[in-house]
Design brief:
The complex is a heterodimer of chains A (523) and B (449). Chain A is an alpha/beta fold and 523 residues long. Chain A has 2 domains: 258 residues, Type I PLP-dependent aspartate aminotransferase-like (Major domain) (Aspartate Aminotransferase, domain 2); 130 residues, Aspartate Aminotransferase, domain 1 (Alpha-Beta Complex). Chain B folds into 2 domains: 120 residues, Aspartate Aminotransferase, domain 1 (Alpha-Beta Complex), CATH 3.90.1150.10; 258 residues, Aspartate Aminotransferase, domain 2 (3-Layer(aba) Sandwich). Chain B has 449 residues and is α/β, with parallel strands linked by helices. Chain B is 36% helix and 13% strand. In chain B, the strands form 4 sheets. A 7-stranded mixed beta sheet of chain B has the order 2-8-7-6-5-3-4, with helices on both faces. Chain B is globular. Chain B is built from 13 helices and 15 strands. Chain B starts with 7 loop residues before the first helix and ends with a helix. Classes of the chains: A alpha/beta (523), B alpha/beta (449). Chains A and B meet through α1, α2, α3, α4 and α5 of A and α1, α2, α3, α4 and α5 of B.
């Protein structure tokens, strides 16, 4: 029995009327109202205790800031409350299933967080003498070995800072290879399937390539006829960017033929490794004929997504592209590990430098911790359970929703909006899922499927959780099929109702501005 | 396997619901020659927490940390104190384990902090608008260069001789891939103003840095004026965000784009990453910016809320016409930055900057008193360069042998500038103690005598 103060048991009392849902404070039960930090009275104050300045003679030479940086400084209790309250407006994997397709939202083991915070990794400087960071270089080298072994590729560039940065690395390596062949000015065309992530065409364009879109066939794979047609002219082909398993959650059955065709045309094969989780430990991309592939450590190897990064995108390279890898990279000789930081001598063919320093060390530690924990056997099980979970969802929902393609899927299940009644859209289903306590699936992607709903459960969900999720989604899908109009107003139970994105874009307000004096006077 | 909830029984049940015999059925699309018969050869099997922790701790212990030594390394990353509450904030599950805020109704926590972050960055750089973060300083600088070319429809950028060589290299790489001409001015301790003479009618932007890689601070207003006269843009770079509390910020010098490294505020050294690129611009250029932008709006009931906005600039909508290919940025590092900045406030940032400057002045006084040392940075914030009458690499090794991590030899950044072979770049911060400075000076005295 729960007891109130003075030992009185609390008993529910029927009042006969519903309490008003609006409150004076703006808070509701556990939900606390929280303004912007700029709407506090902490202007001109600070929440840190710093030693008093001594008044030493300045060596600034007069290059001083004229206007003060005006920002409030909150005390620690206020700061902690601010962020804890705000955190409670976020959905997260630690709260529940996060079925965002192509994002691989899996559990983030806490051991990895602990390891990344060891001072020997977190409190070392990228430019301190290399003799004083041998353990760090060894860790990066060890992680590189795991990545090369798991992918069956001979080389890996560790410095790319996210998936799209890894794509940039791969495509710049291809560009550099073409330069070395004297064909960079003629080979400008990069084939990209219509189903690709937006980063693929954006990356190709950033490297000065021209994007040539190839269509998907009825089975959701690359249309081989279209590909062959696009490769009739070969002397302008730089390469292909292909995601495998693809964004429809399917393995490209013709991948080896695709690799052969692109190589025969004199181009290179860039594989987008965003969906590596489906095959890790079971299939080595190196056995499929690829030339480059980035690996999202923040997807397959579970470094936390952090609300939009940081990521990490090491990029494996074939023999043909390895000489062009970016600096810095690590070599081992009799004196230990050392960094090659300049694109000369042993790195003379390198395409150059991509970032400030050596890569996302904090993510490397977490990823290696994850790999060591799982081992070869555990990683294989990861892929198998991820694929099993996705197929289970597809099987449980295929009678109420419309699977986009026939047959088994890989790590994500893709549905179209064909089953919905007139007027009900994918977004309505997504928002209704929020009321059921779930983060929505990826919606309207890939573009090749109408009203796409892409569901990736990952391997870290239990069967009971999958059953609950399927039950919730099934009920929403049935309402969508029946044309239940109330779906259009969802979510009803989230901290906010649907937000007006059109208004936000029309007159962008991108920072807090102090209210005008007349407005203050009126309040 | 502690991270996998399915039991063998679950797996069997699920396979029967699906109508598959085994998981192998799901992999039949994989070419037969690429199907591994067992696990990937050459890798160990799974291990318990204790074993993994032991192994990684052993690797960590081989490194010399910034806190356990007299530490003076800068050049783009700085050892600062991070308040304990900052790390607590970024370890909140709801921030740590969530995604880019695509569903604003259940991501207001991330979105509001991004809005606050953007406001803070705009204020400390004295610019109109800031985005929701980039990967790091160097990649921000590269994106600023290509953005300037887009905005001006020109294809030439000029880099100062004091721009961090890693930033210069990253910028050259991206520019050259896009057919943009890059002019690099020769390495110079105090040469930022030379940019003013290097602008012509074809120039899209000039890129200068203050404090620069040698620590020199410069009022680059004349550079901005010269650029604007030719309808070019001025990009102002910084690698030490704490300097913005005391030193003339980009917006006060007429910068059109301000980019820099935000690691110093809220983030650990992490051997180079993850860090947080700061990216700010004038209002006029907002639609040319790369990366995520968070904006204010209202919900269906008129309540204030925040969403990602102006996404028609971005890769997921505009594909090959996007302003950048960036997708994932540095969300959690931006959160660490904004939490630390929320504690500091404008006053705290200035106080912190003053302490940093004083520490560097004390260090300069102590080193200058050593025979043979010549400080060559004329005006500085918390970092400066000095010459020693010997090879800088040998001097630094001698210092390391005496438990002083004395800084960066300039030759590591400029391997071909012979006249920099005896130059050391060193930094001091609020973490630097009088004992550290005394240890540095006495060790250097020993080495030079």
């Amino acid at each position: 029995m729960s007891m109130n103060s003075q030992g009185r048991p609390s008993t529910p009392v029927a009042t006969g009327s519903q309490h008003d849902t609006e409150t004076v404070s703006g808070s509701k039960g556990l939900y606390q109202f929280e303004p912007l930090i700029f709407e506090t009275d902490r202007w001109g104050k600070t929440g840190v205790d710093l030693p008093k300045a001594k008044g030493t003679k300045s060596r600034l030479g007069g290059v001083e800031r004229a206007g003060k940086a005006e920002l409030p400084g909150l005390s620690e209790p206020e700061t902690v409350r601010h962020y804890v309250r705000l955190s409670q407006r976020n959905y997260a994997i630690d709260l529940g299933l996060f079925p965002l397709g192509s994002c691989t939202m899996k559990h983030n083991p806490r051991l990895n967080e602990k390891m990344a915070r060891l001072p020997g990794f977190a409190d070392i400087h990228p430019m301190q003498p290399q003799a004083s960071v041998q353990g760090a270089l060894e860790l990066i080298d060890e992680l590189a070995t795991w990545l090369k072994t798991l992918t069956g590729m001979p080389a890996v560039a560790m410095s790319p800072k996210a998936g799209a940065h890894g794509e940039l690395c791969g495509m710049l390596a291809i560009r550099q290879a073409l330069i070395s062949r004297g064909e960079a000015d003629t080979r400008k065309r990069v084939l990209v399937p219509a189903s690709a992530h937006g980063t693929n065409p954006a990356t190709a364009a950033q490297c000065g390539f021209i994007v040539d879109e190839i269509s998907a066939d009825k089975r959701g794979r690359v249309d081989m006829e279209d590909l062959r047609a696009k490769l009739e002219k070969t002397d302008d082909v730089a390469g292909i960017m292909l995601t495998n398993p693809n964004t429809c959650g399917l393995f490209e059955t013709d991948i080896k033929d695709i690799a052969d065709l692109i190589h025969e045309a004199g181009g290179y094969f860039y594989c987008d490794g965003a969906n590596f989780n489906a095959i890790v430990g079971r299939v080595r991309p190196g056995d499929l004929g690829i030339d480059a592939m980035h690996i999202n450590l923040h997807k397959t190897f579970s470094t936390p997504h952090g609300g939009g990064g940081p990521g990490s995108g090491p990029t494996v390279l074939s023999e043909a592209l390895a000489p062009f890898a970016p600096v810095p990279f690590i070599l081992k000789d009799e004196d230990g590990f050392r960094l090659v930081e300049e694109a000369e001598e042993e790195a003379k063919e390198s395409f150059g430098r991509m970032a400030s320093f050596h890569g996302q060390m904090g993510m490397f530690v977490r990823a290696l911790s994850y790999m060591l924990s799982h081992g070869a056997d555990g990683l294989k099980q990861v892929a198998e359970d991820a694929v099993l979970n996705a197929n289970y969802i597809q099987a449980k929902l295929k009678t109420v929703m419309t699977p986009a393609f026939d047959g088994f899927c890989m790590h994500e299940a893709l549905f179209s909006d064909k089953f919905t009644a007139e007027g009900i859209e994918t977004i309505d289903i997504a928002k209704a899922l929020i009321d059921e306590g779930y983060h929505p699936m990826t919606m309207y992607f890939p573009l090749v499927v109408h009203g796409a709903m892409l569901i990736e459960p990952t391997e870290t969900e239990s069967k009971a959780e999958l059953d609950r999720f399927c039950g919730a989604l099934e009920s929403v899908a049935r309402r969508a099929a029946q044309g239940d109009d109330t779906l259009k107003g969802a979510p009803y139970l989230a901290p906010m109702k649907r937000l007006d994105e059109t208004q936000a874009a029309r007159k962008p307000v991108l920072k807090w501005v102090p209210p005008a004096p007349e407005q203050l006077a009126a309040e | 396997m502690r991270y996998l909830p399915l039991t063998q029984e679950d797996r069997a049940d699920m396979l029967s619901v699906i109508g598959a015999n085994s998981v192998d059925d799901f992999y039949t699309d994989v070419p037969e020659s690429a199907r591994l018969p067992g696990t990937v050869p050459g890798l160990p099997d799974h291990q318990g927490e204790l074993a993994v922790e032991r192994y990684l701790t052993k690797l960590a212990n081989k490194n010399v940390t910034a806190s356990e030594s007299a530490f003076f390394v800068g050049c783009g990353a700085y050892k600062h104190h991070v308040p304990a509450s900052v790390d607590m904030v970024i370890q909140r599950s709801e921030f740590l384990t969530t995604y880019t805020p695509y569903q604003p109704e259940i991501a207001q926590g991330t979105l509001q902090t991004l809005f606050e972050f953007q406001t803070q960055v705009a204020e400390i750089t004295a610019m109109d608008v800031a985005n929701a973060s980039m990967y790091d300083g160097a990649t921000s600088c590269a994106e600023a260069a290509v953005m300037a070319c887009r905005a001006t429809r020109r294809k030439k950028v000029v880099l100062s001789g004091g721009l961090h060589p890693h930033y210069a290299a990253s910028t050259k790489l991206l520019c050259e891939a896009q057919g943009i001409e890059v002019v690099q001015l020769p390495a110079a301790i105090d040469g930022e103003l030379e940019l003013a003479g290097a602008v012509d009618d074809a120039t899209a932007c000039v890129i200068g840095q203050s404090p620069n890689v040698f620590g020199t601070i410069t009022d680059m207003t004349p550079v901005a004026d010269a650029a604007h006269e030719k309808k070019a843009l001025f990009v102002s770079v910084f690698t030490e965000a704490v300097s913005l509390g005391l030193v003339k910020p980009p917006g006060e010098m007429g910068a059109d784009i301000a980019v820099g490294e935000g690691q110093s505020i809220g983030n650990s050294l992490n051997f180079g990453g993850p860090y947080v690129g700061l990216f700010a611009a004038t209002q006029k250029l907002v639609r040319q910016m790369p990366g995520r932008l968070c904006g204010e709006t209202t919900d269906a009931e008129g309540k204030r809320g925040f969403v990602l906005t102006l996404s028609t600039r971005e890769q997921h909508i505009r594909r090959d016409k996007a302003t950048s290919n960036i997708c994932t940025n540095s969300g959690l590092c931006a959160l660490a930055f904004t939490a630390h900045m929320t504690l500091l406030g404008g006053k705290g940032l200035r106080d912190l900057a003053v302490l940093n400057h004083e520490a560097a002045c004390d260090l300069a006084d102590a080193l200058e008193a050593v025979d043979g040392v010549e400080i060559i940075t004329p005006r500085f914030f918390n970092e400066f360069a000095f010459r020693v009458p010997m090879n800088a690499a040998d001097a630094l090794q001698g210092l390391l042998d005496r438990d002083v991590v004395g800084g960066v030899r300039a030759s590591r950044l400029y391997p071909h500038e012979d006249e920099l072979s005896n130059v050391i770049v060193c930094a001091a911060t609020e973490c630097t103690t009088p004992e550290d400075i005394a240890a540095y000076a006495s060790a250097l005295k020993e080495i030079l005598s």
